[in-house]
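Team,

Forwarding the record for the chain on the shared tracking sheet. I've put the sequence and predicted structure together so nobody has to dig through attachments.
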Amino acid sequence: MKALVFKEFGSSDVLKFEEVERPIISENEVLIEMKAVGVNFADIYRRKGNYHLAGNPPYILGYEGAGIISEVGSNISDYKIGDRVAFADVPYANAEYVAAKDSHIVPIPNEISFEIAASIMLQGLTAHYLINDSYKIKAGDIALVHAVAGGVGQLLTQMIRLKGGEVIGLTSSQEKREKALSIGAKEVFLYNENWVGLTKDLTKAKHGVDVVYESVGSTIMDSFEATKVHGTVVFYGMAGGDPVHIDPRMLMDTSKTLTGGDLWNILISKEERLNRSNELFTWIANKQIEIQEPTVFELKDGKLAHDLLESRKSTGKIILTV
């Protein structure tokens, strides 16, 4: 089979489309003929050597995707050949075939394309736990969402509104501001504005927002400033750099809460994956949330996909089709 591999860490130039051995499945695995694969910043970090990679080269990137089951292990009873499935955390996905444990895959409804499934497994399930687990959104809540025009930000905005909340967004350009407003954000401020002051002015009745979804990191103290007494800051990313150390006395003095979140601490069982993905797929099938069409590259052109993602000029998801 063909796969997108690299034999040393480095720029996108190290990526090669080469012949490798097809996986041999165990009795508890299925073999998936891949149709679409999500591209994420974690793939770039791994390619550069910023994430640890076990084993020996050649390395195959990717862990999010969708496809058709072509072979079933002897202990598998929940799936059969021909089933359409997706996953958020199965390694070596940048290939024509991927071996996956049955506990890590979920069925895709007929209404959901392979491309959309590969676009939303990671970001969609992240947004899902952020509004249900890290901070449970209630009707009337006002949430401040960082990077509101990004993949998770767009999904967060729509899910918060589904739960009866309102969204104030933060982004970097007027174009991205318009995008966030078009999917339901009440107001969107730019990072080069005094967004803390503008947010506090907009939420005078509450003296700040109920919750901030903080994915930048370096802005965490500003996020606390924009949060009301008894409010919550959910820290789940640091795209803009490491956060400062938080003084527990500040939390005590303001009665504010800091909590973290990581998807891999949520997807701890087959049932968690099925229940959460089923709700996510239902929202999409019922058009309760809008998914932006992804930017598509062929697997052999993975270098171009990496270059576009690293440029930070893309909006929405980038996927590789197989």
